UniProtKB/TrEMBL annotation:
CDD domains: WHTH_GntR. Pfam families: GntR (PF00392), UTRA (PF07702). It comes from Muricaecibacterium torontonense. Residues 17-85 form the HTH gntR-type domain. PROSITE patterns: HTH_GNTR. This is GntR family transcriptional regulator. SMART domains: HTH_GNTR (SM00345), UTRA (SM00866). It comes from the Bacteria. InterPro entries: Bact_HTH_transcr_reg (IPR050679), Chorismate_lyase_/UTRA_dom_sf (IPR028978), Tscrpt_reg_HTH_GntR (IPR000524), UTRA (IPR011663), WH-like_DNA-bd_sf (IPR036388), WH_DNA-bd_sf (IPR036390). The lineage of its organism: Bacteria, Bacillati, Actinomycetota, Coriobacteriia, Coriobacteriales. One of its GO terms (biological process) is negative regulation of DNA-templated transcription. One of its GO terms (molecular function) is DNA binding. Signal peptide: none annotated. Keywords: DNA-binding, Transcription, Transcription regulation.
Amino acid sequence: MNSIDYIKHHFDFESPQPPGMQLAVVVAETIKAGVLTPGDPLPTERELCDALLLPRSAVREAMEILCTSGEITRMAGLGTFVAPSFMRRQLDSVYDFTRSVKAEGMEPSTKVLLFQHTYPAGFSSRTLDLPLDEPSIFRIERLRYADDVPMSLEIEHIPCLRFPNLTQADVSGSLYEMLARKYGVQIGDADEYYQAILLGKREAKLLDRQYRSPAFRIVRVVRDTSGQVFNITEAFVPGDHTRLGVHLEGRTPPPNLD
């Protein structure tokens, strides 16, 4: 069944719901059902008007709703398309790629590009507070995928002294789950720093993006429950597949002093 037939089959012509709003819901369901997939063109406004006998104003209202919600994207001169799959990053908790991908209904995978025993410099050296007699770290570069689409290039710095016998096979999935299971390390808290950037040639090639396409550079400093830093991550995340979310709470009203 093509997308027009699917939409027509699921559109309730007798519903009291405004037609533009109902069409937006049905198109969103069409995308969720996989009839339309990321990057697919949507039927044109004329095709939808003719198939559903709707005024163009109702179809345009539906498209506006879907654009605002991020379900579709418009490209000048080309048409309207299903938006690419997004990775949602909640900024009020420590981000775990594997869990987040699974929560979006996708399959995570990891390609380890580098697993190296080396010595840190600059920010990593100062922040990890390494002992003078054993200042070495594991430098790990990983390409993270969701449904075989590269979503993140991550560079990890982990102290060797604290995590002896760490192997490349250990870092082929969730780093934090592995460290908890193998070494008993629990996350206490973390700081993250976000910077809007344009991808360099190497990062763009690995992430299968255009050179100088927009992205986020994210630096994460993770501490255990005792407050000791055990991981520094630098991640490059394409902007077209990333949404940032923050949970906000209202201010507590001042106490009544009467």
